[in-house]
Design brief:
Blueprint lengths: L5 H23 L2 E6 L4 E4 L2 H6 L12 H4 L5 H7 L3 E8 L2 E11 L5 E10 L6 H25 L13 H15 L4 E4 L6 H10 L8 E5 L5 H9 L17 H4 L4 E5 L6 H13 L1 E2 L8 E2 L3 E6 L3 H6 L5 H7 L2 E4 L10 H16 L5 E2 L1 H8 L6 H15 L4 E2 L2 H4 L21 H19 L4 H8 L3 H10 L9
Parallel strand pairs: 6-11, 6-12, 7-8, 8-11, 13-14
Antiparallel strand pairs: 1-2, 1-5, 3-4, 4-5, 9-10
The structure holds adenosine-5'-triphosphate.
InterPro entries: AAA+_ATPase, AAA_lid_NorR, Homeodomain-like_sf, HTH_Fis, P-loop_NTPase, PAS, PAS-like_dom_sf, PAS_4
Pfam family, one: HTH_8
Protein name: Sigma-54-dependent Fis family transcriptional regulator
Length: about 475
């Protein structure tokens, strides 16, 4: 016999399912129940009464469903027209996995509902529940890691130094921690602006909230608005099509640290000012306003007043941010702090490298104190790390640093040949490090300008800063 044409066979199957689905469900499930639109029982199959301990099924017909099954949600399904596809229903000491569907007539009017008892033992859902449980654990773990990343690492104790300039800036920062207004931190690159911002957050009433940092110079201009304010679902295609929270929302109840604020474009300056004034943000592609409760700490290594005077930075935004200003002095202006900072950094670097503690000789300290440190504490930390890696001695001497310092700063002539313990790769990295630190210093801390001096893009400068361990730029 020739096979039936597909369309005819499909129609035959569809009709058969239509005619027999109730009977099939009734046979395969643990029980099935039909109610009218008043939620009165109009029919029950044979299995259902058995589970409920009812001797005569006919005795329940016409009764409100709750008289028979006190926890039933059939009434709400009939009233709302919304199905409950999967639920666990308690009946006495038993639990059943159930599905509840509204029933409509051909005009779409609800005329009743069907309840199906799918399993009489919720343990049959174990594989599904264990997958769900695993996903929940994974989610909790990811959230915990994210929370950890948003917690601050530094407190005021981390800002080492006893010089009058250092003590003054720490006192002012402590006062800023108690206040609610924005804080503006000014200072050259690597002077500890982010460290202080974290310490202010950690000592503020917002300490239990998140600390979210954004490095404005490290993010391409075109992405910054979405990064700040988030994206509404459907605004973009691709990875962002589901929408995404911006840094403002992530910092709700906490502190948003805007690093390199001086590098912000005029268009975004206007949007930031609006957000700060109105205390609400509008995600990209949405017309919904989200209230925000975020404290702003901004930092820059640029001369922001000069940028205002020369029209590069909005004066209204400057005045809004410039309520409590901290001027972090460069290391060369508090060189008295260098011995203590160098010792603390040496201890913590050795710990991080898993090495035994090392000390610094007096002539090593003297050698370091003679240098001008354009890259400030970050550069000092980097130099200590390199010296520690290159020497096995318990105590580091001046000679361990002399060959690491730029030629102009060396107290003694450099060895004629490169040390045989250094590979070409290390020598190349050192040269790059020095070039970057020098470029940043001669650009007065402005990284966009430093990138131009070096003839590379701002993004690749940040990549190099991060890869060469020159800073926290990649942490944003
Ligand atoms: N007073 C200090 N005591 C100890 N460590 C410090 C001190 N100041 C800075 N550091 C360390 O120096 C490094 C650079 O600090 P930080 O990133 O806070 O500087 P920054 O001014 O924000 O730099 P940039 O302007 O380049 O972003 C960090 O590892 C920080 O821990």
């Amino acid at each position: 016999m020739a096979p039936a044409p597909f369309a005819a066979e499909a129609e035959r199957i569809r009709r058969h399912v239509n005619d027999t689905l109730l009977a099939a469900f009734s046979e395969l499930s643990e029980g099935i129940l039909i109610v009218d639109r008043e939620a009165r029982i109009v029919w029950m199959n044979e299995q259902y009464p058995r589970h409920l301990g009812i001797a005569d099924p006919a005795s329940v017909i016409g009764l409100p469903v709750e008289d028979v099954i006190p926890n039933s949600l059939m009434r709400s399904v009939v009233a709302s027209g919304k199905p409950i596809m999967l639920d666990v229903m308690e009946f006495g000491s038993e639990s059943f996995v159930v599905m509840r569907l509204p029933v409509r007539d051909s005009a779409g009017t609800i005329i009743g509902g069907v309840g199906v008892m799918i399993f009489d033992d919720p343990r049959q859902l174990a594989p599904l529940l264990s997958r769900f449980q695993n996903l929940r654990l994974e989610l909790a773990d990811t959230r915990r890691k994210l929370d950890e990343a948003r917690r601050t690492r530094y407190t005021f104790a981390s800002f080492v130094g006893t010089s009058p300039a250092c003590v003054a800036v720490k006192d002012k920062a402590r006062r800023a921690a108690r206040a609610v207004s924005p804080v503006l931190i000014l200072g050259e690159t690597g002077t500890g602006k982010e460290l202080l911002a974290q310490a202010i957050h950690a000592a503020s009433p917002r300490a239990d909230g998140p600390f979210v940092a954004v490095n404005i110079a490290a993010i391409p201009e075109t992405l910054l608005e979405a990064e700040f304010f988030g994206v509404a679902p459907g605004a973009y295609t691709g990875a962002d099509r589901k929408g995404r929270s911006g840094k403002f929302e992530l910092a709700q109840g906490g502190t948003l640290f805007l690093d390199e604020i001086g590098d912000m474009s005029p268009a975004l300056q206007a949007k930031l000012l609006r957000a700060l004034q109105e205390k609400e943000i509008e995600p990209v592609g949405s017309n919904r306003l989200i209230p925000i409760d975020v404290r702003i700490i901004a930092a820059t290594s640029r001369n922001l007043q000069k940028d205002v005077d020369e029209g590069r930075f909005r004066p209204d935004l400057f005045y809004r941010l410039n309520v409590m200003t901290l001027d972090v002095p460069p290391l060369r202006e508090r060189i008295d702090d260098l011995p203590l900072i160098a010792e603390c950094l040496t201890d913590s670097i050795a710990r991080q490298l898993g090495e035994p503690p090392r000390s610094l000789s007096a002539d090593a300290i003297a050698c370091l104190a003679g240098y001008t440190w354009p890259g400030n504490v970050r550069e000092l930390s980097n130099m200590l790390e390199r010296a520690l890696l290159l020497s096995d001695a318990d105590r580091l001497e001046a000679r361990d640093f002399e060959h690491l310092l730029p030629a102009a700063a060396r107290a003694t002539p450099a060895p004629a040949k490169a040390s045989p313990t250094r590979t070409l790769d290390q020598i190349q990295q050192d040269a790059e490090r020095r070039a970057i630190v020098d470029a940043i210093a001669s650009a007065g801390g402005n990284k966009a300008q430093a990138a131009r001096i070096l003839g590379i893009s701002r993004a690749s400068l940040y990549e190099k800063i991060s890869a060469l361990g020159l800073g926290s730029a990649a942490n944003t």
